[in-house]
Amino acid sequence: MTQSKARPVRIAARAIILHDNKLLLVNAYKGRGDLWCAPGGGAEAHQSLPENLVREVMEETGLTVAVGAPCLINEFHDPNGTFHQVEVFFRCTLTSGQLDDTWQDPEHIVSLRRWATRDEITNLKVRPKSLAAVAWGDGDVLVYDPLEAILP
């Protein structure tokens, strides 16, 4: 690895929130509405991953959640850049709030959010690719989704 690619691996927490048999998704990148992921984001030092996740879900969606058990570890990177992230996904329960189109992410990254059925997800570009299978419990065990490129 060349020195120009050296950068610390980013740790993130993400929420798998099923409500009325729909999964909560947000746009994955600022200004990009064609790639979807579970809400969440980078961990801040001296906070647990669940604490980080509660904050991130509120920032991105305006929703309050209770964080449950971890259910997926995903690792992805940009093979042409320096970005490499390890994400820990937790099953979460919605405790208050509703999606509101007027909600503003204070970091201005998430601008789109939606509840999607399993059938709808098959027609969306979602990362990680295993998200729907884990969300709907196709294998209700901790899963490791090996390193994949951010974009197809």
Mean pLDDT: 88
Spell the H/E element sequence.
EEEEHEEEHEHE
Count of domain modules: 1
SS element count, helices:
3
Measured by DSSP, the beta-strand proportion falls in 35-45%
Shape: globular
Please state the second-level CATH architecture. Alpha-Beta Complex
- Number-wise, the strands total 9
Description of the molecule:
30% of the residues are buried. The mean pLDDT is 88. By secondary structure, the chain is mainly β. The protein has a single domain (11-149), classed as Nucleoside Triphosphate Pyrophosphohydrolase (Alpha-Beta Complex), CATH 3.90.79. The two termini are 22 Å apart. Strands 1, 2, 3, 4, 5, 6, 7, 8 and 9 form a nine-stranded mixed β-sheet that branches. It has helices at 49-61, 118-121, 131-135, and strands spanning 10-19, 22-29, 32-37, 40-42, 64-77, 84-96, 113-116, 125-126, 143-149. It is built from three helices and nine strands; from the N terminus they run ββββαβββαβαβ.
Keywords:
152 residues, mainly beta, Nucleoside Triphosphate Pyrophosphohydrolase, 9-stranded mixed beta sheet, 44% strand
Outline the fold blueprint.
Blueprint: E1 10-19, E2 22-29, E3 32-37, E4 40-42, H1 49-61, E5 64-77, E6 84-96, E7 113-116, H2 118-121, E8 125-126, H3 131-135, E9 143-149
Task: Briefly say what this structure is.
With 152 residues, the chain is mainly beta.
